Amino acid sequence: MKNVPALPAVLVVDDEVRSQEALRRTLEEDFSVFTASGADEALTIMEREQAGRGVQVVLCDQRMPGTSGVAFLTEVRQRWPDVVRIVLSGYTEAGDIIAGINEAGIYQYLLKPWQPEQLLLTLKSAANVWRLQQDNQRLSLELRAAEPVLASKVEMKYERVKRELGLDGLTRSAGSPMNPVCDMVQRIAPYDLSVLLMGESGTGKEMLARAIHYQSRRDRQAFVVENCGALPDQLLEAELFGYKRGAFTGAYEDRIGLFQQADGGTIFLDEIGETSPAFQVKLLRVLQEGEFRPLGSPRPVSVNVRVIAATNRDLEAEVREGRFREDLYYRLATVTLHVPPLRERPMDIPLLAQRLLEASQKALGKTVQGFTTETLACIAAYRWPGNVRELQNEILRMLALCEGKQLGAELLSPRVLRAPVGVHEDAELSFLADLSGGLKERMEQLEAKVVKEALIRHRWNKSKAAADLGLSRVGLRNKLVRYGLEKG
Questions:
Q1: Structural domains in the chain (count)
Q2: Is the pLDDT of residue 425 over 50?
Q3: Which first-to-last residue range defines the signal peptide (predicted)?
Q4: pTM of the model as a whole
Q5: 3-state secondary structure string, the chain?
């Protein structure tokens, strides 16, 4: 049998027996009811019951011989402060109750003649108040007891986030060109210097900016990101500096800008080279004075923010051409870091691919065992003009299409599978320059590569590969033997 929860207990104190019985009949279906005819009897019941489960609510008549209801409830409050106290009174006694309501801590008072529905609703509400008080006290005690443990867990989680987003989270091998960049980050991150990150799109400049933030003394404050090339001047100014209600059409309420949100922390301004000269003047003021004026505001706002900017343009050339302010450039470029493209980091590609695969599996909720050797070879041979972002998208695509246990080379996009030929002219010329022998020998090497690419794309199905190449199965088999492409 299921345990039936005990009914909440109410003590009714009234010197009139008929009134006691009327109150009992009204309440007994929803409460465990105790009755007393006076204060002394009520105190005896309270002392007895509070040693056990206790009384949750006391309902007391104001007019009783010897003592008033307010005086009795004041004593109840002093001895059992958790008990919820309600008083019944006539119209002529309301003034006395109001005068003593704070001293007695009365939850509510009801006027006679009372209505059964109103009385029952009030008592149920009082019982809920008592229960919530008990829950709150219990939770407060549990939280105080757990506070050291919770603080420790929060700190452990923060340290883990810091490792993942700091320098330790930047994937690189022992001989990577990223290592000198990371060494420089380690040296300059603790100091409030403006940093300009230069490099091609998709090289991970935002990740490097986060690493600088998490290696700095501002690491426990906000890190805020804005792509300056994605918005026109007015919207960019509103995003960064905020605005007051009515500053422009559609400004229906005040909005805090990103600079103010980043106060005490770091703001990362990506694609800074795309901003207009007019906006550059306003940004220069923030860097020089540490203050800005929200749109529509008569007063400036002061902030303490570290600025990290990034661009894929040659800002020095932009300065020479008059498209970027020289004074702003030097304000941003206190320290300049060049982020190498992925084609200059071939030794990092297998590590990056594995890291990105782990993230992709979490994103798609799909798991595989990893890459085949052929896949890794093709990935390493490709130049990745879109850099890490392109590699990430390629892995997401492969994972979505995969029906086996591993990501095979046949899942690669044609441009990656056929690398390096046809991707970039310089890559193609470099590949051709590496071929040895006369024209016949070089043509045979090219033919071997084309045959192998067709086999990989058709998952080594020789019939499909032969049809794709316009060969018979016998002709294809001869070429496989000739070029050593037969799988053992």
A1: 3
A2: no
A3: none
A4: 0.60
A5: CCCCCCCCEEEEECCCHHHHHHHHHHHCCCCEEEEECCHHHHHHHHHHHHCCCCCCEEEEECCCCCCCHHHHHHHHHHHCCCCEEEEEECHHHHHHHHHHHHHHCCCEEEECCCCHHHHHHHHHHHHHHHHHHHHHHHHHHHHHHHHHHHHHHHHHHHHHHHHHHCHHHCCCCCCCCHHHHHHHHHHHCCCCCCEEEECCCCCCHHHHHHHHHHCCCCCCCCEEEEEHHHCCHHHHHHHHHEECCCCCCCCCCCEECHHHHCCCCEEEEECHHHCCHHHHHHHHHHHHHCEECCECCCCCEECCCEEEEEECCCHHHHHHCCCCCHHHHHHHCCEEEECCCHHHCHHHHHHHHHHHHHHHHHHHCCCCCEECHHHHHHHHHCCCCCHHHHHHHHHHHHHHHCCCCEECHHHCCHHHHCCCCCCCHHHHHHHHHHCCCCHHHHHHHHHHHHHHHHHHHCCCCHHHHHHHHCCCHHHHHHHHHHHCCCCC
